[in-house]
Amino acid sequence: MTQRARAFAFLALANLLWAGNWVIGRALRDALDPVSLNFWRWVIAVVVLAPFALPGLAAKREVIRRHAAILALLAVLSVSIFQSLVYLGLQSTTAVNAVLINCAGPLFILLFAWLIDGERASLRQLAGFLVSVAGILVILSRGEPARLAQLEFHSGDAWIVLAIAIWGAYSVLLKRRPPELGGLHFLFVISAAGVLFLAPVFAFQVVQAPPRPPTLPEALAVLYVGFAASVAAYLFWNRGTAIVGANAAGFTLYLLPIFGTLLAIAFLGETFGAFHAVGTATIVAGIVLATRK
Fold it and tell me: Cα separation of 45 and 210, whole Å?
């Protein structure tokens, strides 16, 4: 397997793990508030990463100090704000709606790549984007174009759109991370910083409304988002993005609605129709068109 093929395999695995996070975020909407769920998610990630990251972190102290500003910005965008907004949106919209809106990710990545780096999308990338958007519209309209004029968006959809815009900015800024920090050390640093930024808001919410102890299934779900969706998925995403670039990596986000829809059907009782099959096939065609050499 070539390095490029491995990179796209990493990006696909990241999307599969993140799809599980979106479904779980919807399932836990009545058990944990968005900030608390996000706080515990990253506390678990820090605990998991600490034994592997701490031994070599002292030698990176000067690198961290020199690049503290960009590391803090990446932590705020990806750890503190992005996922809190996702969980906030999932309080009032469906998992399928959320993962479909997530397909706007490549558009925001292309936009921020232009705004921040002056990088223009190729014609093939724009064509792939349009093909994939057509697949999204097939799913949103349930195969009936007339439905598009009658779509009703939940209040949480706006929070999801804002979250995806923030993720686009993070993905573009990721190339500014200090190269001296390997993937493990980088993830530990932004996870720990993100927890510190979340801690005051979490503490305020605990004082205002003391939480109840979680049930065993709820605790296992939080462990999943803390380990699989945080540690493993971010390592896969960061590694894949470093190899193929933010624009190409962004188009693999179209895999998330496919994975998310299948998981929502399996665990949240949602149904799958012919329009889902046509829509997801069109989305995949767009990915192939946009990312192939």
Answer: 23
HSE-up of residue 106 (Cα within 13 Å, Cβ side) = 29
pLDDT tens digits, 55-94? 888 889 999 999 999 999 999 999 999 999 999 999 987 7
CA separation for the pair 290, 246 (Å, rounded): 12
> What is the Cα–Cα distance from 111 to 256, expressed in whole angstroms?
20
Domain boundaries, the chain: 3-291
Q: Phi then psi for 246, rounded to 5 degrees?
A: -65, -40
**Which letter does DSSP use for residue 197 in this model?**
H
Q: Which residue has the tokens 């949602």?
A: 270
Instruction: Please give the C-alpha separations between residue 164 and each of 118, 156, 179, 269, in angstroms, as whole numbers.
Output: 20, 13, 25, 26
The three-class DSSP label of residue 49 is: helix
Cβ neighbours of 269 (radius 10 Å): 7
Mean pLDDT of all residues in 214-236: 90
Given this model, what pLDDT does residue 253 score? 76
